[in-house]
Design goal:
eight-stranded mixed β-sheet
Length: 462
Amino acid sequence: MRRWFLFLCLAFELSATSIARPNIVWIMAEDIGCDLACYGAKGVQTPVLDRLASDGLKLNRLYCTSPICSTNRTAMITGMYQTSINGHHHRSHRTDGFRLPDPVKPITSYLQKAGYFCALGCGYGPKTDFNFDSSEIVWDGKDWSERAQGQPFFAQIQLRVTHRGNWWERIRSESDDPVKTEEIELPVFLPDHAEIRKDWAMYLDQVERADAQVGEILTRLKNEGILENTIVVFIGDNGRCFHRGKGFLYEDGIKVPGIVYGTSIPVAGTDCDRLVSTIDLSAQILNWAGVPVPEHMQGRPFLSIEAVDRGYVFAARDRWDEVYDKSRTVVGKRFKYIRNDMPEVPVFTFQQYLEKVRPIRSVLWKLYQEGKMDAFQRYYMAPKKPAEELFDLLNDPMETQNLAEDEAFSDEINRLREVLKLWEVATNDMGRYPEHPTAIEDEWKEKIEVRKQKLKSGRAVQ
């Protein structure tokens, strides 16, 4: 299998380089898990992305470096772990003039020097959401149509529809064939309840709308006669916005879909089971453009013949709005280890943002209080989370059994503890140091006070 994949990498590299300076379109759907039909999801119809996967390359083990949008986006635009460049706290440094440390630059900077036109939005979402002074990034325009004739382009396109918003009900009502609640399959961590089924179905309605939007983008490329010379990448910017998903280091929070398509790239219908980090996509984009990957960049091309198969991928959770937390994870070929440095912060904690955008939180809390959850579902409702978690992803892909205290796996957890410690030192994980209080004092002071009052009155979940 390794020889076969190396052959595909060589074919991919040779074909990509044979394209005269390929255009690159990077489509990011917000807050989406691997909930596409081509990944085995039930009850959802995603014909466009399914076709892309069947004609291209599907990444089965693509992991974010963070389960939260701004932190993972900060990592992707630079090809660096957000923890290495002081971008690990959600929406920090956006107004205090913080600049990226030398020699770190956004990948757009390298592409522009190579003659690429860098477009943001292209008729869809223009979101950037970086944890540094975004004036460091100069986009050449809002649409690739603004480029000079014959100039290659890089386009970053954001599909907002899958993000939680007040449009979910409207999208469902406008659908000619809304997702049927009886045809979906709820994840095992969610109790089977009518309101939860409806919420999950509405989420899949948004996934179907995102699929249609990808179709619109592909149709435009084809109509303009440039699809043949364009590499299209589709990914999620972080995991789905559900309990245990976005914001957390479980598979639902950091494992995202990834599809690479290019009509001149002979990898049709191929699945990639390698461990790939989202910062590797950043490096791969430079590789496609013929730009040398800077030595400081921590991401590495994964479709180059020189690519080294990753033994592990890493991700980090830090402050998310007013909730202070710190967790780290290392994912290997089979086992996954999570270290929670603040176990006193529960998974199901009060957070103003989540109270607004996740309507089933109250349903979950009610079912928990009424004893209508199984042991696995109650695990994520506890007043504390374990200090350590170990999961066998091969035999337990849904992470239903924490093996951290099982003596039979003591060697495995000891090994992964050491791997994680070495990574923290080697990458200078800045989460080891306290965040300067003035960075959030004004913005979150009021929200923190609201949280304290709710906790005092008993109206908060935890």
